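Hi Y.,

Following your request, here is the sequence exactly as I used it, all 123 residues.
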Amino acid sequence: MKVSLVLALLGYLMVPSDAAILGRCVVAKRLKDGGLSDFEGYSLENWVCLAYFESKFNPEAVYENVHEAYMGFGLFQIRNNDWCDRGRNLCHVSCSDLLDPYLKKTIECAKKVVKEKEGMGAW
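Below is the corresponding structure, written out as tokens. Let me know if you'd prefer a different format.
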């Protein structure tokens, strides 16, 4: 009886750690629907690959780089010091807007980033 009660309680307390992770096909569809396929000469495959290596398809990922004093947000780990919240805020968005799994603001901001002189090299 005690064992089953403990197992039941543990089952309620355990939450999948990858709940926010999107599947590769979902990411590809949302990026394509957002107009990133062949945007600025970069294929949809380039964008999907970037999303995987930056966040492992986690649109809610936040990474803090203490050595270089920036934080990366969302699917593409867009940096706060230039693109959102503080600093220059070139995307004119809150960094928390870049954590939305529907990716609308993320895609808009990524388009601005890639239009800069470094292109995808900005990542």
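Confidence is low (pLDDT under 50) at residues 3-18.

Thanks again,
Q.
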